[in-house]
Amino acid sequence: MSALSRRRFLGMSALGSAAALGLTTVSTRAAGAAEHSPAVIVGTGYGAAVTALRLGAAGIPTVMLEMGQLWNTPAEDGNIFPDMLNPDRRAMWFKDRTEAPLASFLWLDLVNRDIDRYAGVLDRVNYGDMSVYVGRGVGGGSLVNGAMAVTPKRSYFEQILPRVDADEMYGRYFPLANSMLGTNHIDPEWFETSRAYQFARVSRKAAHEAGFQTAFVPSVYDFDYMRREEEQLVPRSALASEVIYGNNHGKSSLDKSYLAAALGTGNVTIETLTEVRDIAQQQDGTYSLSVRRIDEHGTVLGVRQLTAKYLFLGGGSLGSTELLVRARDTGKLPDLGEEIGRGWGTNGNVMLGRANHSWDPVGELESGMPALGIDNWDDPVSPVFAEIAPVPAGIETFASLYLAITRNPERGTFRYDPGADRAVLQWSESQGQPSIDAAKRVFDRINEVNGTSYRYDLFGDTRAFESRFTYHPLGGLVLGEATDLYGRVNGYRNLYVTDGSLIPGSTGVNPFVTITALAERNIDRVLAEDIRAA
Ligand code: FAE
Q1: Which of 186, 392, 487, 496 could lock 522 by a disulfide, CB 3.0 to 4.6 Å apart?
Q2: Could you read off the pLDDT of 451-479 as tens digits, one per residue?
Q3: What is this structure's pTM?
Q4: Which residues are registered as beta bridge partners of 422?
Q5: Complete DSSP assignment for 324-362
């Protein structure tokens, strides 16, 4: 067994037994809740998980603090997660009703359900004109996302982060990230015959008719497993309408990859249902964190202080940005500059649906995991990468759904609201218009050539394009602006950002591979220069 597999095995056992015992501290050692740790990481998403593995492997005792739950124990129905058609309290983070991205179908609210307030796995954070979907739990967004593992086009990466060495990223860190995450590719022959991808083939035909190219999308969902799902040899997940509220099988989420390996180093501890509220720096330069423990019903169990020499922020674009905006504006980290909270974008997300002809059915069975996209990114006027998204309703819908990623230059800013003690995003609906315009150029043409039309019934009113939510929040603590070129926060030693908040609002593709690869690059440098050399 390789060292990595051994670590993963140890880590998976620790996660399994913590879940079975209902523990909120996960470790391969008998670890108590220490008051001081050499390194603390906020969150357990992509950036955080990479950082934990590399610190743990370097022998640095590290504590990860995660506000969500460990998702590892089946509930009474035998499943860890609910499917999209029958959501229950596990679906959402403290909501009275689910808030699914498709608000309606035939203008009817058939999609959402009343639920009990609970520490569920998907959050929708609403800021006026913009709502942001994020994952909550050990693994962050990896628990709820669509598993599309896409490396950005090099020319675009060079545009968005011109001061990052692209040779190093494409030669070393992107391949490393993909291999660690478990990225795999669909067998094109199987794709042509699979019932579960008829919806994607129908969309492909319409795109090709209009002269657009399509491309397969790599995934961290195991396509071999999916094939066996279709053959009814294994329990179904992607083919059982599981997406956005978690997958019970098939997906290599971070708890099965980086986080398992991190725990397996023996140096990493994860504390769940533990939210970092405040950060301050002490006289000796170490950081103190005010940390709130809750139970899964939201009852506050206590607040305690923790200290760390090295503090890594991996709470995602919303979480990390909020911590630093709050720290600056409450005077706890007064040397933080104006760049904190800036440069936030939606990755140009816009969703839309098309109505197909009755002779072009999409099929009753749709895989929850997308595998194909319309790739019009090289078009200088309307660059669009549109993933062909499923509507896994279990019935024939004659609908094609798309999540289009566009090059939207609009950016938002987070400001501290002292009354609510939260960072609030400044973003107006009109800032979504460039995304709509770009997508409209592509899909107007597809509709015109194919004699099809938009669906006006999917987003709660009669709009055809929905740009008021995003799955891909990026920025807020932009690399080279709020931090140096390796995520070190300007103005403070030993304080780092390691997640999607480093990326300036856009990656042109689904972002988790970029976040992972950048985190690998940054921690390499930080370990060598700041930690090993200290
Ligand atoms: P993230 O994964 O969001 O993790 C942050 C973690 O920190 C979360 O677990 C939080 O609960 C936790 N946290 C935040 N604040 C605190 C605090 N103060 N104290 C303690 N814990 C805290 O961060 N991307 C793709 O590349 N491909 C896809 O197919 C895809 N599909 C998506 C589908 C959905 C429904 C959603 C919501 C997202 C999707 N994404 C996809 C986006 C992707 O999951 C996201 O970019 C990454 O998860 C962001 O990684 P971060 O490390 O920035």
Answers
A1: 487
A2: 999 999 999 899 999 999 999 999 999 99
A3: 0.98
A4: 417
A5: HHHHHHTTSSTT--TTTTEEEE-TT-EEEEEEPPTTS--
